[in-house]
Amino acid sequence: MKQTSILILILLLLINVQIFSQPRSGGNRQPRLGIVGHVLDKKTNDPLEYVNIVVLKEEDNTQVNGGITDTEGKFRIIGIRPGKYIAKVSYIGFKSVFVDDIDLNRSNRVMDLGNIYIEPASLQLEDAKVVGEKTPIEYKIDKKVINVSEQSTSISGSAVDVLENVPSVRVDIEGNVALRGSGSFTLLIDGRPSVLDATDALEQIPATSIDKIEIITNPSAKYDPEGVSGIINIISKKHELDGISAIINGNAGMHNTFGGDFTSSYRTKEFSLNLGARYNERYSPGSSLENRRTFNDTASSFLNSNGISERARTGWSINGGGDYKFSENDIIGFSARYGDRSGGRNSEIDYFNYTEPITTEKRYTSSNQRERSGDFFSSNLNYTHTFGPKQHNIYLEAMYQKRNGDEFTINEYIESDGTISDGRKNTEVGPGIRRRLKLDYSYPLSEDSKLEAGLKYEMNNSEDDTKSYIFDPANSDYEYEDEYSYIIDYTRNISAAYGIYSGSIWDIGLQGGLRGEYTYRLIELVDSNSSTLIDRLDYFPTFHATYKLNEIQQIMASYTSRIRRPRGWYLEPFDVWTDANNIRRGNPNLQPEYIDSYELAFLTNWGNSLVSLEAYYRIRKNKIERVREVYAKDITLMTYTNFGRDYSFGTEMMLNTDLLKFWNMNLMGDLYHYKIVGTFKDEDLTKENFNWSVRLNNTFKIFESTKVQINGSYNSPSISAQNEMKSSISANFAIKQEFFNKKLSLTLQVRDLFNSAIHEGNSYGPGFESYYTFERDAPYVSLNVSLNLNNFKKERKKGGTNGNGDMDDDEF
Question: Is the pLDDT confidence value at 812 over 50?
C-alpha cells in the first residue's frame, strides 16, 4: 500500500506538470528569432553547465539578451529582434569566446551556432605559453568540482589525501573524513554506490586514478537522501581518444609503502572499452597516549597507557567496462570491478593501573591486533535511449554488488615475565549483497523548462556471525563465550520515486522536486525470538534557485530534506567486546535522523580571480550520537542514542587568484557556529562553540615543465556530545618535473612537513574522563612516477554526452 501511494504521488505530479506546460492555443503567433548552440570544454570535450551567453548588438556592443547552458551544455535564447549580433560565451575560470556574424532575419529566424569550445584560462610565462591547465576548483549550480590533477602534494597518496585539500571536507590524522563537520555522507564512485564502506573505499583508491571529485552538499530529489551532509562523488580517469591509450603510475615511500595503477582504453566512434588495475600498500606508524579515569562516589581507578601502533591497509582491484552505440539514439553500457582489501591496526601498549585511595598498583603490556579483510565484486548494466524531436530520454540500470567481510580482533595482557594473564579474541564473518533496479526519465517541456522523474527498487541482505573467546590461564588457551556470540540476519529494502520540475521566471532559474521512499528493514537475532522491524514511508522535498546579476555574477539558493538511517550494528541489541577495556552495544530503539539543509551562494570574477561565498544552515533532528558510560572498573560501554538536535550555521569562502604570472594561490576558509542540545543519563550535555579552518595552496610555475606546490591547513578545536578535539595544523610540499613533452612525470612529495598534525582531545561522561593523543611518524616522503602513453587527438563530438547523472548510495 505504501509503495503504491508513492507511485500515485509521482503520477499526479507528472500529470499536473504536463497539463500546465501544454502550449495554449489562440492566435497565429510567428516563431521568435534567436540562437541555439552547444558549449564544450576544449580540453576534455565535456559539456559545460551554467555557461553565460550574452547577446550583444554588433554596432555598439550593447546587451540585448542572454542565457545559460543546461546540464548538457546546450543553450537556446529566443526573443531577439532582427539584426546583426555578437554572442559572448564566458565561464568562470575559462577564456571568453566571441561568436560574430550572427544575422537574424525572416529567412534565418533561429541560428544554430553549433559546438562552441572554450578552454581554461592559461598563464603567460615570458616567451613560454603554459596551456591545458585546469582550474583547481570549478563551481557549478549544485556542486563543487575539484580537478585532482592540479594537486601535486597528494598525488602519491589515496583519495583520503586528496580530500585534505578539498573545500567543505575535513580529514583528521587517522584518515576519518567529514563533510561540513559530519562523517555521515554518501560516497559514490563514478556516480554509483561503493561496494565498500566509505573509509575502506577512500583508502583503497589511489590519487593517480582520480580525475575529479564532486562535492554536492544540497543534492536534488533525484539523488538518494541518505547522509547528513550530502555526497562525495569520486570520478575515475577515463579516455576519450580514438585508438588505444593508457596511463601507468607507480609510487613508493617511507615505511615500506608502495603501489601502482594503470588505466587503458580502446575507442572507436561506436564502441569503447576500458580496463584498469591497482595495487597499494600503505602503512602509518605512530605513537599514542591515553590517561583514563573511572570513578564513583568513593573511589577512582586510573588506567594510563602509552605505546606504539601502526595502521596498515592493503588492497588490489581490477575493473573494466565499455559502451556500444548501436544507433544515434541508443547506447548500452556495462562495468565490473573485483578486488580484495585488508586493513587493521597493531599496537604494543604499556599500562599503569592504580586506584585512589591507593589499594592496588599494576603494570603490564597489552598486545593488540585488529584486522578487517575480504573480497568484493560490483557489476552494472545500463541502457540509454533518446527519442523524439525534443530529445527526451530514458535511462535504465541494473546493479549487483557483493562483499565478504572477515574481522579479527585479539587483545592480550602480558606480564613482566612474558606470560599472558588475560586476553580476549573476537571474530566476525559474513557476506553482504545489494541488488538495484532504477529508471530515470527526462522530458523537455519547453525552451527553458524540463521534467524529470524516476523509480528505484533496492534490496540489501547481509549476515554477520560474531564469536567471542576469553583467555583461560589455567590451560593457556582461549575458550568460546556463548553469551557474547551471535548470528544476525539483516534485510533492508527501499522503494523510491521522485519527480522534478525545472523552469524559469524572468531571470530566476527554479527547480522543485519531491522524493518518496518506503523502507522495510528487519534485523533478526538467529536462534532467538528477538527482532527489530522498521516499516516506514518518508517524503523529501528539495528546492533550488539561481539568479544571474550580470554576465559574471550569480546568486544560488537551495533547500533539501535528508535522512540518516542507523547502520546495522547501531541496532544490534547485544554486547561485543572490541578490546579488553571497551564494549560496544547497539540500540534497537534508535530512530533515523531528519536533516533540513539551507544554502545561499554568491559567485563572481574579480579581475583574474574567482571569488565564492557560501552560507549554510543545517538542523539535525533525532541526532544519532555515539556515547560512552562506565560498564565496570576500567571498562567503558559504547552505545548509540537519539541525543536531541544540533545546529550548524556558517560560511565557506574561496579565493583563487594569480598573484604573479608564475604564482597561483588558492585560499579556502570555513567558519561556523555549532550547537548541540541533548541529555544522556540525566546529564545535560548542551554545548556550543565556534569552529574555523583555513587551507592555503600555492602553486609555482618555475619552468614550463616544472611545478612546485606548497600547502598548509589549520583546524580549530571542535566538540561533540562527549568529546573536545584540540586544534591541528599541517603543511605539505611537492615538486613535479615533466619530461618528453609531458609523457613522463616525476613528483617528489613530503607530507606533514613539520610533524605537527597531532590528534589530541578529551572525552568525558557519566563516571569517566580521559585524555588521548596520537602522533604519526612524520614527515612522510614519497616519489610518484607517471607514464602517459596517449598519442592521439580527441575527436570532436557533434552534440552532448549521454549519462545518467545518478548518485545513489546506501549502506548494506
Answer: no
Contact 338, 377 (CB under 8 A): yes
CA gap 440, 445 in Å, rounded: 16
Count CB neighbours of 690 within 10 A.
12
Whether the bond between 285 and the residue before it is cis, its omega within 30 degrees of 0, is: no
C-alpha cell at 585: 552495544
Contacts of 185 (CB under 8 A, 6+ apart): 177, 179, 198, 227, 228, 229, 230, 231, 232
SS3 for 210-270, per residue? Answer: EEEEEEECCCCCCCCCECCCCEEEEEECCCCECEEEEEEEEEEECCCEEEEEEEEEEECCC
- Nearby residues of 319 by Cβ (< 8 Å), 6 or more positions away: 275, 276, 277, 335, 336, 337, 338
What is the phi/psi pair of residue 441, to 5°?
Answer: -135, 135
* Digit-coded pLDDT (tens) for 505-541: 877 888 899 999 999 988 888 877 777 788 899 999 9
* Side chain identity, residue 252: A
Residue 252 makes CB contacts below 8 A (sequence gap 6+) with 258, 782, 783
The C-alpha torsion from 159 through 165 and 168 to 170, rounded to 10°, is: 70
Q: Write phi, then psi, for 342 (nearest 5 degrees).
A: -150, 150
* pTM as predicted: 0.76
Assess contact for 461 and 553: CB atoms under 8 A. Answer: no
Grid cell of 299 as nine digits: 573511589
Cα Dmax for the chain: 102
| Ordered DSSP codes for 417-438 | TS-EEEEEEEEEEEEEEEEEEE
**Spatial distance between the Cα atoms of 138 and 331, rounded to a whole number of angstroms:** 29
Q: Look up cell 618555475; give the residue.
A: 702
Look-up of cell digits 550574452: 54
C-alpha cell of 417? Answer: 615475565
- Please give the single-letter amino acid code of residue 237: K
**Nearest 5°: CA angle at 368, between 367 and 373?**
145
Among residues 210, 118, 88, which one has the least CA distance to residue 157? 210
Q: What's the pLDDT tens digit per position in 70-111?
A: 767 888 888 788 889 999 887 766 778 889 889 888 888 888
8 Å CB contact between 540 and 560: yes
Q: Of 624, 719, 751, 629, nearest to 682 (Cα)? A: 629
What is the per-residue DSSP string for 460-503? EEEEEEEEEEEEETTTTEEEEEEEEEEEEEEEEEEEEEEEEEEE
Closest of 286, 207, 279, 208 to residue 254, by C-alpha: 286
* Residue matched to cell numbers 533532528: 621
Q: Could you give the dihedral angle defined by the CA atoms of residues 41, 42, 44 and 46, in that order, rounded to the nearest 10 degrees? A: 30
> 682: how many CB neighbours lie within 10 A of its CB?
6
* Residue 752 CA: distances (Å) to CA of 158, 601, 708, 737: 15, 32, 16, 21
Note the pLDDT of residue 127: 32
Task: Let me know: does 643 contact 625? Beta carbons within 8 Å.
Answer: yes
Angle at 381 between CA 380 and CA 387, to 5 degrees: 140
- pLDDT tens digits, residue range 736-775? 898 887 788 898 999 899 999 888 999 998 899 999 999 9
Q: Which of 428, 494, 429 is nearest to 460 (CA)?
A: 494
Task: Concatenate the DSSP letters of all residues of 659-712 into one string.
Answer: EETTEEEEEEEEEEEEEEEEEETTEE--EEEEEEEEEEEEEEEEETTEEEEEEE
DSSP letter (8 states) at residue 209: G
> Residue 658 CB: number of other CB atoms within 10 A?
16
Which amino acid type is present at position 52?
N
Q: How confident is the model at residue 551 (pLDDT cuts 50, 70, 90)?
A: low
**Among 683, 680, 669, which residue's Cα sits nearest to residue 714?**
669
Residue found under cell 542565457: 67
CA angle at 451 for the pair 800 and 322, rounded to the nearest 5°: 35
Distance CA 63, CA 56 (A): 4
Sign for the pseudo-dihedral over CA of 749, 698, 41, 803: positive
